[in-house]
Amino acid sequence: MAKRPIVIYGDPVLREVTQTVDEINQEVKDLVYDMTDTLKKAKGLGLAASQVGVARRLFIIDLSAVDINESLKVFINPEILETSGEIEMEEGCLSFPELYLKLTRPERVRVRAVDTEGNRFEMIAEGVAARAVLHEFDHTQGKLFIDLLTPLARTMIKGRLRKLAAVS
Ligand SMILES: [Zn+2]
Q: 146 and 157 in contact (C-beta within 8 Å)?
């Protein structure tokens, strides 16, 4: 496993709508291994492939830091089937170092994806897990958490965003 550099806001790859994974070959497995290593070292909860510069439709989530019963989960070609509820929560993104935003998103989500063995699975996530799934899913669509801000709130962090984009 090798750590890959995390792409920071300003890099156009973060705005790409990612490509479906047609085959879970060695290249895809290596990508998942590397992303796992990268996520653990960055101590994040989730990481999408586009955040390491690869515009493929997959992400990983590791909630073991907040819940010892959790383990790393891989979501290949994820689809959001259903959402319900609404909750405000603070969230961060590894592509936006030190930026934390209070955002409203659905409280629960039903998601379908494929794992690294090629098995299709469905999962119902709530709370932090739902938040992580929705955040990472957005990355696969080229969407970022700042897109959920109101125009006014976005104006207020304009300077910070410009600084991030300048170093990327
Ligand atoms: Zn993110």
A: yes
Under a CB-based contact definition with an 8 Å cutoff, are residues 8 and 95 in contact? Answer: yes
Q: What are phi and psi of 30, to 5 degrees?
A: -60, -40
Whole-number Å distance, alpha carbon 137 to ligand 1 midpoint, is 9
Helix and strand element counts for the chain (H, E): 4, 7
**How remote is the CA of residue 96 from the centroid of ligand 1, in Å?**
8
Residues 80/134, Cβ–Cβ less than 8 Å: yes
- Report pTM: 0.95
pLDDT digits (tens, 9 = 90+) for 67-91: 878 889 999 999 999 999 999 999 9
Q: Which residues contact 28 (CB under 8 A, 6 or more apart)?
A: 21, 56, 58, 76, 116
Q: How far is the CA of 145 from the centre of ligand 1 (A)?
A: 7
- List Cβ neighbours of 140 (8 Å cut-off, separation of 6 or more): 17, 18, 48, 49, 50, 57, 58, 59, 78
